[in-house]
Amino acid sequence: MKCSMRQLLRSYLKKHPLCQNRLVTKDGHCNIEYGNVKYKNFFAYILDFWTTFVEIRWRFVIFFFVASFTLSWFIFGLLWYWICRNNGDLEWQNPPEGHKPCVLNLKGLTTAFLFSLETQTTVGYGGLDITPYCPGAIALIIIQILVGAIINCFWCGVVMTKIALPKKRVKTIRFSEVAVICPNKGALCLQIRVANLRKSLMIGSQIFGKLLRTKVSSEGETTILDQVNVDFMVEAGKDSLFFVCPLTLYHVIDKTSPFFDMAVDTLNQQEFELVVFLDGTDESTSSSCQVRTSYIPQEIMWGYKFLPFIFRNKEGKYCVNFSNFAKVEPVLTASCAECFHNEKCHKHFSTKGIDNQGFEVINISDPASITEM
C-alpha cells in the first residue's frame, strides 16, 4: 500500500511539477497581482463597463444578466402599479361602474409585475391589456419596450464577444515544453518548436521573445523584470511565417545575444525567464490573437537537438509526425557560446534524451500517428 502511494505521488509530481516563480505560465497566463489600486483607478473600470463585462467570468455575466432583467421588470412593474393607483384602477380602490382603467385586470403589485414582464418580453397571455385612455401608460409602454431592446442588444453583444474571444483559439497552438541549445548551420542556436493543431492557418504570424531578469546597474540600482529583446526566426525570416505545419524557431547566440555569456555548467545557476510570443490572425474568424509561453533555465537543454517530424509518404504527401514534435536527442555541442565562436572549446555531449509529456507518443508506422498536409 505504501509503495503504491509513493508511486502515485511520484507520478503526480512528474506530471504536475512544483510551481516555479515565473511571470508567464506555460499556458500563457500572466502571474501578476495589482495592489493598492486607488479609488479613481477603480472608478475607471466602471466607466469602461463594456470591457469590464467582456473580461469578467461567466458566473458574474450570468448573475448580472438575470439581475438586469429581473430588476427592470420590477422597476417598470412599480411604475405600472403607480399609474394604475393614480387612476384608481386597483381592486382595493373599488373603482366605480363605467370607470376607464389604464390597464385591464391589473389588481395589485403582483399583476403589475406580471404585466411588466409580459410587456418587456413581448409575451401576451390576453389577461392584461393596456387601454388608450391614459397617455402616461402609452408613454411608459414605449419606454419599456425601448429599454428592453437595449438590454437585449447589450447582453447579446457581451455573450457573442466572449464566445468569439481568441483565448480558446490559442489552446490549439502548442509550444514545446523545453528549449534546446545546439549548433545549426554554423551557428550556436537556441531552438523551440511551435505547432498549430488546426488546419486553419494563422495569417501574418510573427514570433519574438523577451528575456526577463533582475538587473543591477553600475550605480547599484536594481531593476526588476528588466526586458531584453530576443529575436527568433525560421529559415525564411521572422515576419509573416507560413504556419502551415509545426515550425522550429531558433535564436542565434552571438555577441549581441543575452545568452552569449552563459555556458552549460552555469545555465541552471542563472535567474531569468524567456517569454516567447506568437502574434497572428486566425484565417477562419479573422480575429487577432497572441500565444505566449515561457522557459526558465531548467527548461533549456544544452547539447540537444529536436528530432525531425516532417516527411513525405509513398504517395508524395507531406506528413507531420507529432510524436517527434518535442522529442530531443543529444548532439555534440560547444560548452559555451564564446568558445564556440573562438573554436577553442571542448564539446559537450549528453547521453540522455527527453520526451515531451504534452504529446502522445505514437509509432511512425501507425497511420494514426501522422497528419496529412
Short descriptors:
cell membrane; five-stranded mixed beta sheet; potassium; 7 helices; four-stranded antiparallel beta sheet; alpha+beta; Helix Hairpins; 29% helix; Immunoglobulin-like; transmembrane helix; 373 residues; disordered C terminus; 2 domains
How would you describe this structure to a colleague?
The chain has 373 residues and is an alpha+beta fold. The protein has two domains: 58-163, Helix Hairpins; 169-372, Immunoglobulin-like (Sandwich). It has helices at residues 2-15, 39-47, 49-55, 58-87, 109-120, 135-163, 337-342; strands at residues 103-104, 129-130, 173-175, 179-184, 187-196, 202-216, 222-230, 247-252, 273-282, 288-295, 300-302, 304-306, 310-312, 318-321, 328-330, 333-334, 347-348, 370-372. The strands form six sheets. Strands 3, 4, 5, 8 and 11 form a five-stranded mixed sheet that branches. A four-stranded antiparallel sheet has the order 7-6-9-10, with no helix packed on it. Helix 3 (49-55) packs across helix 6 and helix 4 (58-87) packs antiparallel against helix 6 (135-163). The protein is elongated, with a radius of gyration of 32 Å.
Topology record:
Blueprint: H1 2-15, H2 39-47, H3 49-55, H4 58-87, E1 103-104, H5 109-120, E2 129-130, H6 135-163, E3 173-175, E4 179-184, E5 187-196, E6 202-216, E7 222-230, E8 247-252, E9 273-282, E10 288-295, E11 300-302, E12 304-306, E13 310-312, E14 318-321, E15 328-330, E16 333-334, H7 337-342, E17 347-348, E18 370-372
Parallel strand pairs: 4-11
Antiparallel strand pairs: 1-2, 3-5, 4-5, 5-8, 6-7, 6-9, 9-10, 12-15, 13-14, 14-18, 16-17
Helix pairs in contact: 3-6, 4-5, 4-6
Subcellular location: Cell membrane; Membrane
Keywords: Cell membrane, Ion channel, Ion transport, Membrane, Potassium, Potassium transport, Transmembrane, Transmembrane helix, Transport, Voltage-gated channel
Family: Belongs to the inward rectifier-type potassium channel (TC 1.A.2.1) family.
